[in-house]
C-alpha cells in the first residue's frame, strides 16, 4: 500500500483507488511547512480524538475535497456544527463497510477534549480491512492489552503507532504493541513535533531492528510503499 506522511500523526493510505487521510494537523506544524495542505487528496478522513494536534486542518481539507469525515459521536456532532455535512459517527466496538473496505473502531487509552476544554468523547483507533491489505492505526494511546484482541478478527499487514513517548507510547511500548497485534512492519508517528516528544531516530530504528521488526520513519511529504 502507498502511504504518504504529512508529519506528526497525519498520514494517508491509498487503497482501492481511495485516499484515506488520518488526523490532519499540518498548517501549525513547523516541521511540515513545505506541505501544501490544499493539494492533499482525501476521500475519507478519520479522526482518532479531539485534541487540536489531530483535527486542526480537518475543516479545511474536508471542505476542499468533500471527503467523508469519521470520528466518535462527539466529534461527529462538532463536525456538523462546523459545517461539515459529510460526517459519519463511529465509536469503539463498531464497524462499517465503505467502498474501500471495512473499518472497525477500537479503544485507545488517551484523553480527548476540544480546544475550548469541552468533552471530545473517547479516544479511538481504527482497523481497516481492504482488498489491498489490512492495517491498524492505534491513534494516541498507551500500551494496552486490549490490542491483543485485534488479530483475533483481522490479520494485519502493518500498524501505525505513536513512538514519541511522554504523551503516548514510546519505542519500547510500541515494540510490545507490535507483538500483541502480530505485525512486523510499523509506521512510527507522533514524534519530534514538540520539544517534549523529540526522539533519537537512530536508536529507535536499532531497537526495532533488534526486535526483528521494521520501523518506517518517512520524510514529511514523502510517499512510501508498505
Automatic annotation (TrEMBL):
Residues 7-190 form the Metallo-beta-lactamase domain. This is L-ascorbate metabolism protein UlaG, beta-lactamase superfamily.
Amino acid at each position: 500500500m502507498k502511504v504518504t506522511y504529512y508529519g506528526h500523526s497525519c498520514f494517508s493510505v491509498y487503497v482501492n483507488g481511495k485516499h484515506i487521510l488520518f488526523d490532519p494537523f499540518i498548517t501549525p506544524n513547523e516541521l511540515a511547512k513545505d506541505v501544501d495542505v490544499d493539494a492533499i487528496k482525501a476521500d475519507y478522513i478519520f479522526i482518532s480524538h479531539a485534541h487540536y494536534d489531530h483535527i486542526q486542518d480537518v475543516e479545511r481539507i474536508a471542505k476542499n475535497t468533500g471527503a467523508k469525515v469519521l470520528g466518535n459521536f462527539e466529534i461527529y456532532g462538532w463536525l456538523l456544527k462546523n459545517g461539515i455535512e459529510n460526517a459519519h459517527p463511529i465509536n469503539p466496538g463498531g464497524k462499517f463497510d465503505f467502498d474501500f473496505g471495512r473499518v472497525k473502531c477500537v479503544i485507545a487509552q488517551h484523553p480527548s477534549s476540544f480546544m475550548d476544554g469541552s468533552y471530545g468523547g473517547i479516544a479511538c483507533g481504527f482497523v481497516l480491512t481492504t482488498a489491498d491489505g489490512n492495517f491498524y492505526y492505534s491513534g494516541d494511546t498507551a500500551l494496552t492489552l486490549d490490542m491483543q484482541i485485534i488479530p483475533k478478527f483481522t490479520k494485519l499487514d502493518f500498524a501505525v503507532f505513536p513512538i514519541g513517548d511522554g504523551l503516548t507510547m514510546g519505542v519500547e511500548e510500541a515494540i510490545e504493541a507490535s507483538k500483541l497485534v502480530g505485525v512486523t512492519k510499523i509506521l512510527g508517528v507522533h514524534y519530534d513535533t514538540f520539544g517534549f516528544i523529540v526522539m533519537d531516530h537512530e536508536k529507535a530504528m536499532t531497537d526495532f531492528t533488534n526486535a526483528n521488526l521494521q520501523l518506517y520513519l518517512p520524510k514529511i511529504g514523502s510517499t512510501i510503499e508498505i
